[in-house]
């Protein structure tokens, strides 16, 4: 190897002339992977395989010595070949092409290889390198890769685009006490003193973003829930109650998801294995790596205090990642502009999988609460975008993720299924899976298949739902005859953004009478739609629009009488009425105080956990962002008293836990703090309120933010009470953000300028929420411009959700004129600010902008 390095120095120098020529004559050398480069490479190469070796030391600071052998077939020698490597050039130590040392040319994130060194047909490239750290997520005693969407090239040289699938042969050398997990199965284990080398067999075919490995001090457990497929889980959780209560359930949920998906798609599980790792600091809920799914540990391990909603969320997460094995891993998008397709199917299938697993849950209500508030939050903003977005370069792919693809897209897909019919839709999906298995497909490919299964004009239908942004505002026009019977009933839609877009959709309307509700089905296709089957009906007491929660948009609301909402018997209709009332408030139709009162009345009587969750979220947002200071003073006292009184009643534990979450977030009055403190200190016990260690940690943090007189003592005791070492590290990280000393919090904020202090992104997001809590904004607002100035760097170094989380946790928490002026000044002074990031900023600050109008 030393000889190769010496030779390499010579070849680097001798290759400089060719490099200059390349820059003059070739259009492909640019940062990231352009769509143009991706198309050319897809035509140029085939049959790719990677043989990778990583030697992982026992210290986080040490380099990871690595080797790569990539083999492929080449069909075009008209241009150079480009491997992507988004790391320092000095990380590249040597390169051989077809057995010969060649000049190493690494510029603008690409390793360029002259066509003169390549041959038509089979080629082999060997590279000695130091692995990049950006996506290795290294900790003192474990690490894990996370390479979506274009981060594989930050770890090793590769063809980093989704439509060049490959197989992998991996070798990992790790400290002897470490466990490992990857997409292939371990074929050989070689022990050597303080290290162990694991050789994995050939993996299934996958895109680069799905390659992964986990290594570290993990415990291992295997189960065979079906009797014919063993699964293995790595985990670090040490709470015996959580381990006992969760382990079997986690395995069974994977198996139940597999059973459903095999039946629905009529395609057997497509990969060698289904293993998974539970990771304490994981940035997302989960990631669908082939054969080796990764999860955030807190999402998987629940104890007996968990609510039904928390258990449902865990099951949905597992179903979501399992669905990706078919939708995303087996059939993958051609280009990341269709990344939404894998996410919409994963979410859509997860919703379906929940039906047999949780037969007592109202799944229409679950779908509504899971998707609508989040979809509306982005789609109503000035930063909204179509479900399918344009993507010129893969380096920007991370910006495509958000609530539009995770939440609006499933709403769209449910509308499509309703319009086509369930059987026709399912048949189309089965044909799609069969045709594109182990390959790549785009939305147009699916549209073509679905179009053959339905008289619906799929291209026209999808043009507005998929290719256009925004939502409709729906209004109604009703005429009554002299006997007060309905003479004419019309629904009109207009795009919220004033465009000419029209959304074809189906939903129900509930006509409320003293003796019950008459439900009318409506199919909206044009700007004005006549409602059928209502002529001659007597005038209803009130009308509940979108009664079944299928419709999408802002619907009419009876602002003069809101008392009816809390007594609506149908849970979906009641939940959507609260959501719709909130959307009407943001549109300026009804004042926040009335909506706050209506939601508060709902909290007094509501018996459904999911509806209480909606009410809690809306009350929190209205209280902190849209009430005036005078209204807050009154509202806080009312809210605290109502919730605390309900906690004393004989209610199910799920309801109590959800209500307590609301109480804990607003109990900052002297009396509220004292009640909260006595609960935290276990002096007061609320019957049937089950709190675990994490809950007590959260209470302690709230008491610190609320400036309890014993805050320092509370935080010290809270730290000692944490039994999990990973959670202890998290709490220690958060302590400066909880300090009562402004200067300590200021220093912490400024420390985030260094990317090494932002490595644990979920921890940073929690810290930002502490520092920029509404009760601390007077001291924190001086950091807002710093946060905005740093967001471009946040995007460069962070994972896909972090830029939006950063904005949500800082300027997105404000509703003041001061914060509004900071944002406006920033945008004016930065006219060339990334359009992608500007969109994220406008999404995060939608409440801030609306508050300026609402509070006037």
**Percent range for β-strand residues:** 15-25%
Can you tell me the residue ranges where pLDDT is under 50 for at least 5 consecutive residues? Answer: 1-21
- Straight-line N-to-C gap: 72 Å
Rg, alpha carbons: 28 Å
- What is the 3D form? globular
Count of extended strands:
27
DSSP helix fraction: 40-55%
Strand order of the largest sheet: 5-4-8-2-1-10-13-12
Structural class: alpha+beta
Oligomer: single chain
Largest sheet: 8 strands, mixed
Mean pLDDT: 94
Give the helix tally.
Answer: 30
Structure report:
With 856 residues, the chain is of the alpha+beta class. 44% of the residues lie in helices and 18% in strands. The strands form seven sheets. An eight-stranded mixed beta sheet has the order 5-4-8-2-1-10-13-12. The protein has a five-stranded mixed beta sheet with strand order 15-16-17-19-18. Helix 4 (240-265) crosses helix 6, helix 8 crosses helix 9 (403-420) and helix 14 packs antiparallel against helix 15 (609-626). The N and C termini lie far apart (72 Å).
Task: Furnish the topology, listing elements before pairings.
Blueprint: H1 2-14, H2 16-25, H3 35-44, E1 45-55, E2 65-74, E3 81-84, E4 92-97, E5 100-101, E6 106-107, E7 110-113, E8 121-130, E9 142-144, E10 166-175, E11 179-182, E12 186-192, E13 195-200, E14 213-216, E15 219-223, E16 231-235, H4 240-265, E17 275-279, E18 286-287, E19 292-296, H5 297-300, H6 308-323, E20 331-333, H7 339-357, H8 363-379, H9 403-420, H10 422-436, E21 439-441, H11 443-451, H12 458-467, E22 472-480, E23 486-495, E24 505-513, E25 516-524, E26 528-530, E27 542-545, H13 571-586, H14 592-605, H15 609-626, H16 629-647, H17 653-666, H18 670-680, H19 693-705, H20 711-721, H21 725-738, H22 742-751, H23 761-771, H24 777-780, H25 784-789, H26 791-797, H27 802-809, H28 817-829, H29 835-844, H30 846-854
Parallel strand pairs: 1-10, 16-17, 17-19, 20-21
Antiparallel strand pairs: 1-2, 2-8, 3-7, 4-5, 4-8, 6-7, 9-14, 10-13, 11-14, 12-13, 15-16, 18-19, 22-23, 23-26, 24-25, 24-27
């Amino acid at each position: 190897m030393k000889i190769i390095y010496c030779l390499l120095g010579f070849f680097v120098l001798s290759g400089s002339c060719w490099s200059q020529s390349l820059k003059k004559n070739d259009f492909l050398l640019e940062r990231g992977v352009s769509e143009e480069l991706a198309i050319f490479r897809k035509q140029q190469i085939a049959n790719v395989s990677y043989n990778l070796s990583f030697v992982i030391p026992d210290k986080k600071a040490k380099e990871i010595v690595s080797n790569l052998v990539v083999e492929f077939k080449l069909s075009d020698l008209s241009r150079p070949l480009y491997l992507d490597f988004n790391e320092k050039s000095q990380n590249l130590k040597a390169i051989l092409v077809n057995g010969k040392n060649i000049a190493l040319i690494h510029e603008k994130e690409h390793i360029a290889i002259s066509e003169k060194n390549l041959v038509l047909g089979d080629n082999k490239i060997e590279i000695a390198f130091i692995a990049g750290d950006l996506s290795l997520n290294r900790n003192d005693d474990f690490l894990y890769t996370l390479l979506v969407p274009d981060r594989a090239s930050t770890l090793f040289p590769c063809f980093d685009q989704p439509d060049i699938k490959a197989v992998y042969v991996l070798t990992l050398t790790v400290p002897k006490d470490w466990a490992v997990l990857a997409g292939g199965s371990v074929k050989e284990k070689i022990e050597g003193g303080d290290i162990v080398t694991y050789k994995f067999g050939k993996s299934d075919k996958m895109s680069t973003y799905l390659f992964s490995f986990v290594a570290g001090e993990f415990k291992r457990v295997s189960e065979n829930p079906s009797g014919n497929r063993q699964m293995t889980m790595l985990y670090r959780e040490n709470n015996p109650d959580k381990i006992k209560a969760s382990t079997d359930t986690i395995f069974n949920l994977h198996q139940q998801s597999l059973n459903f998906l095999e039946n629905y798609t009529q395609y057997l599980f497509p990969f060698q294995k289904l293993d998974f790792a539970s990771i304490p600091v994981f940035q997302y809920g989960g990631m669908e790596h082939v054969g080796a799914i990764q999860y955030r540990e807190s999402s998987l391990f629940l104890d007996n205090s968990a609510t039904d909603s928390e258990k449902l969320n865990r099951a949905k997460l597992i179903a979501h990642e399992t669905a990706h094995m078919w939708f995303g891993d087996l059939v993958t998008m051609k280009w990341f502009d269709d990344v939404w397709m894998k996410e919409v199917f994963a979410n859509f299938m997860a919703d379906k999988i929940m039906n047999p697993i949780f037969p007592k849950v109202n799944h229409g209500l679950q779908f509504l609460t899971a998707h609508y508030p989040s979809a509306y939050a982005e789609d109503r903003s000035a930063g909204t975008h179509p479900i399918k977005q344009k993507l010129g370069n893969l380096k920007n792919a991370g910006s495509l993720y958000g609530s539009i693809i995770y939440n609006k897209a499933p709403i769209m897909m449910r509308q499509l299924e309703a319009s086509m019919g369930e059987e026709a839709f399912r048949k189309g999906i089965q044909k799609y899976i069969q045709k594109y298995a182990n390959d790549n497909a785009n939305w147009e490919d699916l549209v073509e298949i679905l179009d053959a299964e339905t008289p619906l004009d799929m291209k026209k239908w999808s043009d507005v739902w998929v290719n256009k942004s925004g939502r409709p505002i729906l209004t109604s026009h009703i005429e009554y005859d002299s006997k007060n019977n309905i003479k004419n009933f019309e629904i009109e839609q207009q795009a919220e953004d004033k465009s000419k877009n029209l959304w074809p959709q189906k939903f129900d309307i509930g006509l409320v009478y003293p003796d019950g509700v008459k439900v009318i089905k409506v199919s909206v296709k044009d700007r004005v739609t006549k409602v059928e089957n209502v002529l001659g009906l007597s005038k209803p007491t009130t009308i509940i629009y979108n009664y079944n929660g299928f419709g999408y948009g802002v619907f009419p609301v009876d602002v003069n009488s809101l008392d009816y909402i809390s007594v609506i018997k149908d849970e979906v209709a009641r939940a959507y009425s609260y959501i719709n009332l909130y959307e009407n408030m943001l549109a300026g139709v009804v004042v926040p105080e009335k909506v706050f009162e209506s939601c508060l009345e709902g909290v007094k009587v509501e018996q459904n956990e999911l509806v209480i969750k909606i009410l809690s979220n809306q009350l929190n947002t209205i209280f902190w962002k849209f009430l005036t200071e005078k209204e807050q003073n009154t509202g806080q006292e009312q809210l605290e008293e109502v919730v605390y009184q309900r906690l004393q009643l004989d209610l199910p534990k799920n309801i109590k836990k959800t209500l307590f979450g609301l109480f804990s977030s607003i109990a900052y009055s002297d009396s509220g703090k004292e009640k909260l403190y006595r609960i935290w200190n276990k002096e007061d016990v609320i019957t049937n309120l089950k709190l675990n260690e994490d809950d007590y940690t959260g209470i302690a943090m709230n008491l610190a933010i609320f400036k309890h007189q014993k805050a320092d003592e509370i935080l010290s005791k809270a730290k000692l009470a944490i039994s999990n070492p990973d959670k202890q590290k998290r709490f220690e990280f958060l302590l400066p953000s909880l300090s009562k000393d402004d200067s300590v919090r200021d220093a912490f904020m400024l420390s985030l300028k260094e990317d090494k202090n932002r490595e644990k992104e979920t921890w940073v997001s929690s810290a930002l929420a502490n520092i920029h809590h509404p009760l601390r904004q007077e001291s924190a607002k001086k950091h807002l411009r710093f946060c905005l100035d740093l967001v471009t760097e946040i995007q460069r170094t962070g994972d896909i959700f972090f830029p939006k989380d950063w904005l949500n946790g800082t300027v997105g928490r404000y509703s003041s004129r001061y914060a509004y002026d900071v944002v406006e000044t920033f945008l004016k002074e930065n006219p060339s600010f990334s359009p992608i990031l500007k969109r994220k900023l406008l999404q995060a600050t939608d409440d801030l902008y609306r508050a300026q109008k609402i509070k006037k």
